[in-house]
Amino acid sequence: EFQLVESGGGLVQAGGSLRLSCVASGFTFDDYDLAWFRQAPGKEREEREGVSCLSRSNGMTNVADSVKGRFTISSDNAKNTLYLQIDNLKPEDTAVYYCAADFFPGESCSLSYYAYDYWGQGTQVTVSS
User: Which residues pair with 21 in a beta bridge?
Assistant: First the structure.
């Protein structure tokens, strides 16, 4: 069984930083895409915003314009771990952050919710003003 487990969220003052982690396990192949999404308070699952993606097969990355310059995606393939470094946090970054896997990527590093096949439980990020 494939699993994604996020960690690293918390309560942070505006201007602070966090590093989120996502550990993937149990999947046969290593050519899938991994991405970070966030679901803001009051929003539904389908309204999750794709913020960044990394292709396991070719290393391609993608970052949403809304967070470019503050969010950085990276991975440690030996540990099957995906990271999201978030700097200069703003109150509008408050959300549950999810790791997601696209097992059958066509377009590499899609930021569309509907491209992804498996999701973790999420980790809460709360930014105080």
Answer: 7, 83
